[in-house]
Amino acid sequence: MKYSTKIHQINAIQESTKAFEIGKSISKVLSYIFLSLIVLNFTFFSAKAQTPTGNPSQVEIIKADSLIGQNQPFMQMKKLIGNVGLRQGTTLLYCNLAILNETTNILEAYGKVKIIQADTVTITGDTAYYFGNERKAIINGHVKLDDRTIILSTSKLDYDLNTSIAYYNTGGKIIDKKSTLTSKEGYYNTVTKLFDFKKDVHVLDKEGSLTADSLRYSTLSKEAFFIAPTLVVNKKDTTYANPGSQYNTITKISNLKGRSTVKTEDYTMTADTMIYDPPTEIGIAIGNIHFISKKDKAILTGDRGRYSKKTGVTRVFGHALLKNVFENDTLFLTADTLVSLDNKETKTKKLYAYKRVLIYKSDFSGKCDSLSYNVSDSTIYFYQKPVLWNLKNQSEADSINILLKNNKISVMNMKGKSFVISTDTLTNYNQIKGRKMVVKFTNDSKIEKVNVEGNGESIYYAVDEKNTLTGMNRVQCGKMTMNFAKNKISRIAFLGKPDGKFIPPKELREEDKELDGFRWRVTEMPTKESILARITPPIIVIPKTIIKDSVEVKKVEKKIINLPNNKIKKKSLPKL
Question: Which residues pair with residue 316 across a beta bridge?
């Protein structure tokens, strides 16, 4: 009986022990399952936190000489060695050694790294980090980007495969078929082929260079878009351009805006807007243009202009002005239109002025309808009833030409209804009239001799040594010659049956003092100030009364608009 009881106790203990072991095993299994769920849940949420919307595909392994799994807490790592190839969508990556974190979808690549995007963009480097979820790459070392239009070289490159934008800030070099571009910082869109360069930008080719702080460049059209002040230097010219301008590195055509300047060996041209074609050397300028001819020491200004080096023609329109600088003097010439001609074959230089011409120089001034100035022989031709003034003399005719010697008036030829008026010390008007007239001047621009041919008439006053009027001579003659000394007539020669009379001072009448057609027009004489004033647009001042009236009108309009159903009632209108 006792023996049987012990057996039952032993069996009970054994059953209890088995139950405990089973419970322990179940507990271990449950703990393992719980822990696994925690790990999986953490991994899921960790990956979800790092993965942007859209669930990008996992980086896949294509090939490798060897693969080593590296299991770390909460991470699944794989190490690939030798001839490594990976893929994500249309993007391929090759290298010698890679570490792929399959949990975070991040790849580390080492040795002869090559990234190919959609078979259009190839990037190579020494090392790279590739973030699969964001589809972004950071490539280091000897980096090169080739998109079949350019080759970009740098030491570090960030590339976003979503936006197709490459970025560097450690200095880069871009080479295309004709140009080399360098900068410290840059953005490149491999789809639009647009480059944004920043800091120390330089563009070089066989024909010239470009320098700027910032620049946008299209590798397709080879056009540079200036977003900062830019300097372009070619073999034949130098261009200073402001933001908003464009430059084609192939055609060399510049579309310049914002007060830009082009300099060549012969001239300098500045304007608010300018189109310049160096191969044809044609320039079109608009807005406050400023053209300087270095050889001729001439300055052309106006509202619009056009220059062609092949034809040697420069045209200026609107508020046109020529300033020709001599050794001790400056000639000012203004007209509606100025045309400069520089013919290298004939070695002639001419200037043409059309409509409302005014001219001023220290020793003479004048006005006419049109004018031509032969720079080569220093002759100026005046057309359409010109009037000239020099010192106390006035000359007018149907046409006049003057010859400059040592940049001073030397000879004046007058044709058709020629009329010369000269004032003496007593402000009397000595007058000479004829069909043709030649006037010679002294070195100090005073009248020295006058030759008259055809229908000659003259009035000259006789003044003694005490500067007292002794009478007036009035003569008609086919030909006559008058010599002057100290601004007085010193000798007279009449040819062809002269008819004259001497009138004493007491017998002088007002009608005797003027030849037919006499007009003293000194009030019309151009001055430097009047010429400069004409080319300067006037400042429009709006009277206060107009401003006040416009304000009142706006008040009325506002009240009309605010009326119900926009109906106008006479009683509702305020009095103006």
Answer: 305, 338
Q: Quote the pLDDT of residue 570.
A: 38
Q: Which of 196-200, 228-232, 423-427, 515-519 has the lowest mean pLDDT?
A: 423-427
Q: Which position has the token pair 């896949």?
A: 60
Q: Which two tokens stand for residue 35?
A: 């822990």
- Contact yes or no for 439/420 (Cβ under 8 A): yes
The two tokens of residue 159 are 């590339």
Largest Cα separation within the chain, whole Å, is 191
Domain ranges of the chain: 1-50, 60-170, 385-540, 542-576
Q: What is the pLDDT of residues 444-485, one digit of tens each?
A: 888 888 999 988 999 988 888 888 889 999 999 888 888 887
| Size of the chain in residues | 576
Q: Is 397 exposed, middle or buried (0-12, 13-18, 19+ CB in 10 A)?
A: buried
Distance CA(128)–CA(115), nearest Å, equals: 9
Q: Are 29 and 37 in contact (CB under 8 A)?
A: no
Cα–Cα dist 233/43, whole Å: 60
385 — alpha (psi -120 to 50), left (phi > 0) or beta?
A: left
Tell me the C-alpha distance between 160 and 163, whole Å: 6
CB 229 within 8 A of CB 241: yes
Q: What tens digit of pLDDT does each residue of 78-115 get?
A: 999 999 999 998 899 999 999 999 899 999 999 999 99
In contact, 297 and 325? CB cutoff 8 Å: yes
- C-alpha distances in angstroms, 78 versus 71, 99, 100, 156, 418? 8, 6, 5, 26, 107
**Consecutive H or E run containing 532:** helix 528-535
- Please give the span between the terminal C-alpha atoms of the chain, in angstroms, as a whole number: 135
Q: pLDDT value at position 545?
A: 53
Cβ 133 vs Cβ 50: under 8 Å: yes
pLDDT digits (tens, 9 = 90+) for 535-574: 886 555 555 554 454 454 455 444 434 444 444 333 333 3
230 is written with which tokens? 């830019």
- Architecture per CATH, 60-170: Sandwich (2.60)
Are 60-170 and 385-540 the same fold in CATH? yes
Q: CB of 230 within 8 A of CB of 238?
A: no
Long-range contacts of 365-372 (CB under 8 A, 24+ apart): 365/389, 365/390, 365/525, 365/526, 365/527, 366/400, 366/526, 367/524, 367/526, 368/400, 370/335, 371/333, 371/335
Residues 6+ apart with CB under 8 A from 115: 91, 92, 93, 122, 123, 124, 128, 130, 137, 139, 159
Which residue, 450, 411, 416, is CA-closest to 431?
Answer: 450
Interatomic CA distance for residues 183 and 174, integer angstroms: 9
133 φ, ψ to 5°? -65, -40
- Among 347, 343, 353, smallest CA distance to 322 is for 353
Fold of 385-540: lipopolysaccharide transport protein A fold (2.60.450)
Please tell me the distance from the alpha carbon of residue 230 to that of residue 224, in angstroms, as a whole number.
Answer: 10
